[in-house]
Known about the structure:
Strand 28 (441-443) and strand 29 (449-451) form a beta hairpin. This protein is 29% helix and 29% strand. Helix 1 packs parallel to helix 4, helix 1 runs parallel beside helix 7 (286-305) and helix 7 (286-305) runs antiparallel to helix 8 (315-339). The chain has three domains: 2-168 and 259-369, FAD/NAD(P)-binding domain, CATH 3.50.50; 174-255, Alpha-Beta Plaits, CATH 3.30.70; 393-484, Glutaredoxin. The strands form nine sheets. A six-stranded mixed β-sheet has the order 8-3-2-12-21-20. Strands 15-16-17-14-18 form a five-stranded antiparallel β-sheet, covered by helices on one side. A four-stranded mixed β-sheet has the order 1-11-10-9. Pfam families: FAD_binding_3, Rng_hyd_C.
Amino acid sequence: xxxxDVVIAGAGPTGLMLACELRLAGIEVTVVDRLPARTGESRxxxxxxxxxxxxxxxxxxxxxxxxxxxxxxxxxxxxxLDFTDLDTRYPFTLAVLQSVIEEELDIRAVAAxxxxxxxxxxxxxxxxxxxxxxxxxxxRTIRAAYLVGCDGGRGAVRTLTGIDFAGTDATMTxxxxxxxxxxxxxxxxxxxxxxxxxxxxxxFEPGWYRLMLQRYDRAxxxxxxxxxxxxxxxxxxxxxxxxxMHSPRWVTQFGDAARHAERYRHGRVFVxxxxxxxxxxxxxxxxxxxxxxxxxxxxxxxxxxxxRAPEGLLDxxxxxxxxxxxxxxxxTRAQTAxxxxxxxxxxxRDMVASFLDTDEVRxxxxxxxxxxxxxxxxxxxxxxTGYRVPDADLRxxxxxxxxxxxxxxxxxxxxxxxxxxxxxxxEDRVDVIETHDRAGTRSATGSGGVGTPAAVLVRPDGxxxxxxxxxxxxxxxxxxxxxxxxxA
Length: 488
């Protein structure tokens, strides 16, 4: 029987990001996938600001920036959202294909020491008080401390564990084709509404275009496998023209089914990414949601493997991430309703578009789509607690740096600006860094400044666990104990 610390089922972006996080913490990881090899299918087409920040926190962003294309906006149900004034280093959508992200994460995970096994479907799960036996292909077993299912909406881990996946069935059909065009449009065509549906044409890579269509009066069978001619016929039916599509690279279909795992943990088994939640791909939130699941779970799972996880730490993965996914399911259902054809929806879209002319409303939706406004219940009275830490420019030991660079160790940090608290007993888990802020204030929420505290305790995932302005601000000991266990 093989042994490892953690088995991850699924070698997509969520599973690979989790593998990278665990290896950064020195945890032994085996990733298994039922496929014979990586497909190279393009799949998701971009990442948002918060995901870019997360990749930057681990030094992974530069290769993706180099291979992607910046788009200064996003959308809500096809209504444009300007991102350029969001308070982040990355106020744009990065158009980069999922296949590229998987390639870069695969390289990083393997270089860090993760083992990736193909042709390795999970066929059985048996857990006890000390670990979990993961049966692979009915022929061999891997013994691990924990198992994480990152194997998609139809994945085996959630099914074998008996976690319910309740929600709503599809009411419409969408299709995607990555093709070359003989007669491409001069610019992107986004969300052009026609008759029973809408269509889009967007260039992701030089010479290659992603064509999308959505038809709202029919839902195809989940098991249907459309080919290129099916796509062409349906696209012409909606768009009333063919821009000369040829040389298809990938064709698929999707729907607006929305399902959410009733829980994210069952003993020593967890689910993340699409294994925990599926939804209509409105606003490009799905891949981002899964990567952020992985980063939330990774450091907590590492602490548990080491035997240093305080009471409730593993359960906080579900309590923090479940509401985030529920909100995404909610807003994608709303976007589907707002995209349906007909004069009543047209009138509603006109009204919503007028609301988006108000900066406050636009920023609120933009911060939600980009996940910059997420706030966890970390405790503490300071207004920045629970939010992502701003990537402030800092001076550390006479050298220019910034917060994201300091997080690349994967450890928690205590940034001390004007006051150095005593954290005796936690130095083995928390790095104390004396800094000088070169930026004054930056935003914690993506759309409004928060004054720089004298000291900030930042979790390994980049969220503020505690902040204070001086010795009179209590709660630091409680925060250290809550997130990192008792003092040594």
